[in-house]
């Protein structure tokens, strides 16, 4: 593959007349890097759509909304990965980077996009499976009202709030609010605003938060954490050996509005200079990088628990986890559900956990209506007998749920 890349290095200095056969080299590169894993992507996507279609029937959703990135990947994984090579390949044929540089950067881009999207697929599958489990307990979708599940947070927090991805409720008044990767920055206008919301820039971000109750906004800047304390924190783990890996956590320090803008301008200038092959005339400011730290991947849920103080932490793993790790996590009040594959039924323990200890508020009118709709023939017979006792025999009954 490297030799093929060297053949096209610098063949078109302007990058405007790249032959079609040269463009196809990007597809060959993706095949070379990803190989048979592309079939796995199609299998995962198929499993995701199985549970989403079940939600249409059992939770009465109308559809779903993916992020732009996710939508592109699930529609055509290979084509999506090829898109990630556009800028690097353009630089290669112009001679701006070498074949070796393209190989390194291209491989990183393809692997990063593939891994990120596969992770999102499992995360959305897990979230949807929990909703499906609640739907089987007669929960209905209360939010969003339009009936389209959104798995994307783009633009959702411009109003200065953090809304849920979904809220489900039942006839007994029980509700559960779900937030996917929710502690994200919200809108701000000046330095004072930034200082208030800075915690949302620097806080760690669990895969999913669940709240008992109906919550349309979880921002709370008055406490130690910038959001309302969740009842559950859930981490989804899709990789075969995820618990053996390490995670690097970046350090963050509070920024003033001026420093934030200076950093943004510096990144913009340096990025444009790299693309244009220009040299910056003005010296850009230097910023010290805060030191981060490295922790074992399975320890991240402990860290989340220490920060957010939920009632319980939950780990949902696609593959079976080492028994010693399971034992260690369980001792820290963490519910471990492993070896799930793509079997929604295996997530029933989290549904049982959510419902345990819940208090039902009984509304007799709603219950009577539910009873009547489930046993329509008996209800119609009862109505007819009631009317006959009143001497009314000409009865036209039409029941719609």
Can you offer a commentary on this structure?
- The protein is of the alpha/beta class and about 400 residues long.
- It has three domains: about 1-140; about 155-255 and about 290-360, no CATH class; about 365-400, no CATH class.
- About 45% of the residues lie in helices and about 10% in strands.
- It has helices at about 1-10, 20-25, 25-35, 35-60, 70-75, 75-85, 85-95, 100-135, 190-200, 255-275, 300-310, 325-330, 350-355, 365-375, 375-390, and strands at about 65, 140-145, 150, 165-170, 175-180, 210, 230-235, 245-250, 295, 310-315, 335.
- The protein has a seven-stranded mixed sheet, sandwiched between helices.
- Strand 4 (about 165-170) and strand 5 (about 175-180) form a beta hairpin.
- Helix 4 runs parallel beside helix 8 and helix 7 runs antiparallel to helix 8 (about 100-135).
- The radius of gyration is 27 Å and the shape is elongated.
């Amino acid at each position: 593959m490297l030799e093929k890349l060297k053949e096209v290095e610098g063949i078109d200095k302007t990058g405007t007349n790249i032959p079609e056969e040269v463009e196809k080299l990007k597809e060959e590169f993706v095949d070379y890097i990803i190989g048979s894993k592309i079939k796995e992507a199609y299998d995962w996507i198929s499993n995701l759509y199985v549970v989403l279609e079940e939600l249409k029937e059992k939770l009465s959703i109308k559809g779903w909304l993916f992020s732009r990135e996710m939508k592109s990947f699930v529609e055509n994984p290979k084509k999506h990965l090829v898109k990630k090579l556009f800028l690097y390949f353009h630089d290669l044929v112009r001679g701006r980077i070498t074949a070796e540089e393209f190989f390194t950067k291209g491989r990183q881009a393809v692997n990063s996009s593939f891994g990120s999207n596969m992770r999102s697929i499992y995360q959305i599958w897990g979230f949807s499976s929990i909703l499906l489990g609640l739907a089987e307990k007669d929960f209905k979708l209360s939010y969003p009202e339009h009936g389209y599940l959104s798995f994307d947070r783009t633009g959702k927090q411009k109003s200065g709030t953090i809304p849920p991805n979904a809220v489900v409720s039942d006839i007994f008044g029980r509700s559960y609010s779900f937030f996917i990767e929710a502690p994200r920055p919200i809108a701000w206008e000046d330095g004072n605003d930034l200082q208030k919301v800075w915690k949302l820039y620097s806080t760690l971000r669990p895969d999913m938060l669940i709240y008992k109750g109906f919550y349309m906004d979880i921002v709370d800047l008055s406490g130690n954490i910038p959001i309302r304390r969740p009842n559950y924190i859930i981490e989804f783990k899709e990789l075969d050996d995820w618990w053996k890996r390490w995670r690097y956590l970046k350090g963050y320090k509070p920024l003033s509005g001026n420093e934030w803008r200076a950093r943004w301008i510096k990144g913009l200038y340096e990025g444009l200079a790299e693309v244009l092959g220009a040299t910056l005339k003005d010296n850009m400011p230097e910023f010290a990088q805060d030191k981060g730290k490295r922790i074992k991947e399975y320890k991240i849920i402990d860290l989340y628990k220490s920060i957010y103080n939920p009632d319980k932490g939950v780990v949902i793993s696609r593959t079976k986890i080492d028994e010693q790790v399971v034992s260690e996590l369980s001792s820290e009040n963490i519910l471990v559900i492993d070896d799930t594959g793509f079997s929604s039924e295996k997530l029933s323990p989290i549904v049982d956990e959510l419902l345990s200890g819940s208090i039902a508020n009984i509304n007799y009118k709603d219950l009577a209506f539910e009873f009547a709709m489930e046993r329509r023939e008996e209800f119609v017979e009862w109505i007819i007998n009631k009317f006959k006792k009143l001497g009314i025999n000409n009865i036209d009954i039409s029941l719609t749920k």
